[in-house]
Specification:
There is one protein chain. With about 280 residues, the protein is of the alpha/beta class. It has a single domain (about 10-275), classed as Alpha-Beta Barrel (TIM Barrel), CATH 3.20.20.70. Helices cover about 45% and strands about 15% of the residues. The chain has twelve helices and eight strands. The protein has an eight-stranded parallel beta sheet with strand order 1-8-7-6-5-4-3-2. α9 links the parallel β6 (about 185-190) and β7. The longest helix has 27 residues, at about 250-275. The structure holds flavin mononucleotide (FMN). The site of flavin mononucleotide has 18 residues, from β2.
């Protein structure tokens, strides 16, 4: 994969902990998504233990094996996805606060199967925030930098994306500078507008103005018009999560509506060109 991924079609499935496992993502690939996102998975010891506590209070989460001799077989069993086209991409969303021995073992193996590792700087679960993970990485950029530094030492050239929560960022240009310094391949922006069921498109525009890193626009994308709004704002793709939880087939509907429209538009353009001749 090149340093700057292309999302074809520009419709992507966003991570859903406890739901988007290999079988789920395979379905979404079959429905034609430009990229699927496995996970999120907690891959360092501290995030793993924290996730165990979140499961105990009833939250639906994935819990990985922490027996290192089983990592390889788990990957073989769960990450062998079949793409429908050469363009499709598979991303692996990870929660970690430092690159310890366990996360190194996981990253070394997972990167044999997926196209991109997506770092989760988005989670807002209390337990994860308490250990300075999730979106607290955005509030403490020095911690994000240290984390990216240690991941880059382990994976010097493997494509890394990042998932972020847009509305809590104070210093946008400081953040994009860090992400450029660590050659991040895409920024997946949850442009949530707190209290409303629509995205804050200004946040997407802000990132597009600040950086050449491809932006994936996320939050409340429900219709083909929402996808076009994200793309017009300069995002290279739009992503969807919650509607797919009950109805993975929704991806097929979006993809065929989008590709149908693109076909319609190019037919109209051809007709218009022919009429002018
Ligand atoms: C149950 C659930 C689990 C989620 N798990 C993750 C996760 O593990 N990693 C992540 O980056 N985002 C996670 N998200 C956030 C979604 O990927 C997405 O950003 C958010 O739901 C907004 O997009 P939507 O309006 O299309 O649902 C989760 C969302 C839900 C509802």
């Amino acid at each position: 994969m090149s340093a700057n991924p292309r999302f074809i079609p520009p419709i992507v499935q966003s991570a859903i902990a406890g739901i988007s496992d290999g079988a789920f993502c395979q379905k979404i690939l079959n429905y034609g998504a430009g990229m699927v996102t496995l996970g999120g998975f907690s891959i360092d010891r501290e995030s793993h233990l924290t996730t165990t506590r979140m499961i105990e209070r009833g939250r639906d989460e994935f819990l990985l094996q922490f027996k290192v001799d089983q990592v390889k077989s788990w990957c073989l069993e769960n990450l062998n996805l079949e793409k429908q086209t050469n363009h499709q991409l598979v991303s692996f969303n990870v929660r970690l606060i430092n690159a310890d021995y366990f996360s190194e073992v996981w990253l070394n193996e997972v990167t044999k199967f997926v196209d991109i590792v997506e770092i989760n700087a988005h989670c807002r679960q209390e337990e994860i925030l308490k250990i300075n993970g999730g979106h607290n990485l955005l509030l403490k950029p020095e911690k994000l930098e240290t984390l990216l530094d240690s991941i880059r030492k382990l994976l010097p050239s493997f494509p890394l994306g990042i998932k972020i929560r847009g509305h809590i960022i104070g210093d946008y240009s400081g953040l994009t500078k860090i992400l450029e310094d660590y050659s991040i391949s895409y920024i997946h922006v949850d442009a949530m507008l707190p209290g409303q069921k629509r995205a804050n498109i200004k946040i997407i525009r802000k990132f597009v103005e600040l950086t050449d890193i491809p932006i994936i626009g996320n939050n409340s994308v429900r219709t083909i018009n929402d996808i076009h709004t994200m793309l017009k704002a300069g995002a290279k793709a739009a992503s969807v999560a919650r509607p797919l939880m009950q109805n993975p087939e929704f991806m097929q509907y979006l993809v065929s509506d989008y590709t149908g429209r693109i076909a319609d538009e190019s037919n109209n353009n051809t007709i218009q060109r022919n009429n002018k001749r």
